[in-house]
Prior knowledge:
alpha+beta; Phosphoenolpyruvate Carboxykinase, domain 3; three-stranded antiparallel β-sheet; 6 strands
Amino acid sequence: MFIDELENDPLVFFHAAPLRHKSSIVEKGFQSAAILGVGELQSVSYAKKSSGCLAHLGCNISEDYAVFAVKFQPQELDRVVNNPSDIHVYDQSVQPQILGYCVLNAGFNVV
């Protein structure tokens, strides 16, 4: 979804969220479902490739989504759980820099 320079940067990750949450994310940062009071998940996950953040959305997107490209500082990555395809950030004080976002419109089909 993004240019190769971002997709291949080891400090750049991707996060999908409903577009209606974009302003809140920009103003307050990324927050876990537990902090938002909408679930029990204690971490915020970021995919290593932009296509990876679509996996949890299912095949048909029912509302507009923003896919954020974000960048972490190298020392911040020492404070995350690193998995093969994504990272999980449990420390809410670790907030990446938002580089930009793209919008996936409702009805977009993930294949």
